[in-house]
Each structure stands twice: as C-alpha cells, then as structure tokens.
Amino acid sequence: MPTDKIVSLLPSATEIICALGLEANLVGRSHECDYPASVKQLPVCTEANFPDNLSSAQIDVKVKEILADALSVYTVKRNQIKQLAPDVVITQDQCEVCAVSLADVELALDDYLDKKARIISLQPNSLEDVFSDITHIAQALDVPEAGADLLERLIERVDIIKHKLKFSESRPTVACIEWLDPMMISGNWVPGLVSIAGGTPILAQDGKHSPYVQWSDIQAQNPEVIVVMPCGFSIERTLKEIDILMQLPGFADIQAIKNNQLYIVDGNQYFNRPGPRIVDSIEILAEILRPKQFAFGYEGEGWIKFGV
C-alpha cells in the first residue's frame, strides 16, 4: 500500500482517491470536499474569497470583480498545508471559478514547503477525460490495478445504459441549465452524458466550456426537457432561485413546461464533479429521460420533478 500523504484540493479528486482505496492517505482537503462524509474530519486547506448565501447574480458579479482585479476566487491555506507535509497535492486547471486552480497552488506553495510536494493537476473536459484522470491518478499514486478495476466497473455501468438504448429512435431535446442568472447552459462533459442517457443536448458542445446564453436562445430551441443543475448548488439551494426561471417571458409556452418535463438535479454532488459519480449523473439522466427503462433509485435525493 502506498504511503504518500495526499492533500486533495478538488472534490472530484477526493472521490477518486477514496474510490481507489487510498482514503487513509488523505491528510487534507478543500473546503468543498464532502464526499464520502468521512473526509469532512480532515483539515481544510482552502477557503472561498466571497461570502456564503449570495444569490446567483451576486456570485457572478463578485467572481467577475475578483478576476478582473487579477485576484483568485479562492485562498490556499499554505500554513496548513505546510504543517501537513504532503507528498502529493492534487488540484485542477479546468476552471478558475469552480475550485482552486493550478496557478493558485503553485503560487502559494512554490519554495514554501519544507519538502517539495508533487503537484498533480487535472483538466477534464469530457467523460473520456474524466476516465483518463482516474487512470492518471491511480498510476501517479502507484495503484494502477485499483484504477483499472474502478474504471472497468464504471464503464460497465455506462455500457448497460448504451446497450438498452442502442435501438432507441426517440431522443428528446434537453436544455441543461448550469447557472440561472446570468443564464448558462452546461457544457464540458454534460452534453456527452445527455447523449448517453438518450437525449439530444442543445446549445452546448461536448468537451467545450459552458456558454452564456439568452433566454430567447432557449425559447428558439423549445426543448422537450429542461434540467436545472446550477454549479455548486444542491436541490434545496436551487429551489430558492427557481423563480428566476419561472418568471421569464414565455416560460409557460416552452414544450418542457407544457408537458411537465422540468427537473432539478443536485449539481453540486453529481453533475459538477468529474469523478466516479459522473456515472451516477448519467444514471440520473437516464431515469429522467427514460423512466420506463431505468430506475436506479436517485429520485428524491439526486433529482426531483418540479411541477409548475
């Protein structure tokens, strides 16, 4: 068993490490790492540079102000990390808004630790990238067999869904909303997840960053299904702002609303985390889009249908 001490500054990386059987090697985490629940007892090594409980619009304004001043959205607690003396620090270079970035970590830790730590940075943009990251971390932490085994189990679950939908002709159009104000459509790996689950994603491309859109863009597409998955928001948190969507002009005229196909999912725990539970996210979408074919048991906890 590897003895490297690991600090993970990324929730998805923390989940990968635990799924590889290396939770005992974790000595520190980010303020957002909360799964599995047992990691919450670890020392917290980051913090956000804006207060909790801001609205979507307020968060957007605050983040843009911070970035415009060439500052970081997050602070790396380098004294805490120095005390933990990790051999490996895992971070990301995919989104400077979503989590501590590689630049933040390098700036905070360069020539500061008593012993130099290996920095592993992840940059997933698609489901294939997420799977590659699992292999990359497993090899870097000297547990390649555990990585191969985990990947095999995840791919098998994906293949079950693909096989059941192989000859399906009906593929409803799906708008996945990643942010409510201003409005964004989920990009990166999410369009690929929608396609696997039997839908047709709109207004975003697989592997490309999430675009800002106008409500009129969504109206023009007139999607058959709307799935609301704000980045970092639980279902409960999203429910507090769902009025933003409902008050938009022509909301009731969208196909999805007329046919009672508006859903809210837990973006924070599933769709926004490019780790092992990205496959759970596919299963959630399959339950939503193909309820007669799939029942994995996520309803109520991972997703709800929102009646208008």
Short description:
It is built from 13 helices and twelve strands. With 308 residues, the chain is of the alpha/beta class. Strands 7, 8, 9, 10, 11 and 12 form a six-stranded mixed β-sheet that branches. Strands 2-1-5-6 form a four-stranded parallel β-sheet, with helices on both faces.
Layout of helices and strands:
Elements: E1 6-8, H1 11-19, E2 26-29, E3 46-48, H2 56-68, E4 74-76, H3 78-84, E5 88-92, H4 102-109, E6 118-122, H5 127-140, H6 144-164, E7 173-180, E8 183-185, H7 190-196, E9 200-201, H8 215-221, E10 225-228, H9 235-239, H10 242-246, H11 255-258, E11 262-265, H12 267-271, H13 278-289, E12 303-305
Parallel strand pairs: 1-2, 1-5, 5-6, 7-9, 7-10, 10-11
Antiparallel strand pairs: 3-4, 7-8, 11-12
Helix pairs in contact: 5-6, 6-13
Describe this structure in words.
With 308 residues, this protein is an alpha/beta fold. It contains 13 helices and twelve strands. The strands form three sheets. Strands 7, 8, 9, 10, 11 and 12 form a six-stranded mixed beta sheet that branches. The chain has a four-stranded parallel beta sheet with strand order 2-1-5-6, with helices on both faces. Strand 1 (6-8), helix 1 and strand 2 form a beta-alpha-beta unit. The longest helix is centred in the middle third of the chain and has 21 residues, at 144-164. The radius of gyration is 20 Å and the shape is globular. The model has no long low-confidence stretch (mean pLDDT 93).
